[in-house]
Write a sequence for this structure.
């Protein structure tokens, strides 16, 4: 396969042309076109939803929306009102009895580490 044929496969496929049509146009077997494109389709250039910085999307991975973890966290914290809130649960603390809400954990018992420690270790410190 020549370099021009490789470029043609990538260009035609990105234009939405089917593998079979590309195979017929440049006279290469269908499976060769498929396997080449899947292996060499290259990376996409995307923009970060938070800062707008351009970054490349590695081939074969789920599409990224942010350039870094810090940008992802900044965006999520700034847009809490539009984030899908299906995984927020309400609980009553097993130690202090205060109502609290937690994200993503269906088995929470305590509102804080302090309540957990106080309940868990209340008799283990020689307080007799």
């Amino acid at each position: 396969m020549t370099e021009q044929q490789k470029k043609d496969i990538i260009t035609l496929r990105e234009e939405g042309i089917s593998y079979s049509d590309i195979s017929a146009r440049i006279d290469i077997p269908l499976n060769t076109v498929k396997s080449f494109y899947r292996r060499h389709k290259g990376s996409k250039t995307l923009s970060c939803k938070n800062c707008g910085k351009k970054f490349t999307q590695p081939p074969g991975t789920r599409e990224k929306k942010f350039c870094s973890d810090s940008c992802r966290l900044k965006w999520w914290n700034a847009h809490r009102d539009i984030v899908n809130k299906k995984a927020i649960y309400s609980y009553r603390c097993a130690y202090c009895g205060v109502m609290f809400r937690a994200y993503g954990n269906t088995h929470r018992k305590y509102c804080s580490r302090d309540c957990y420690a106080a309940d868990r270790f209340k008799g283990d410190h020689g307080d007799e």
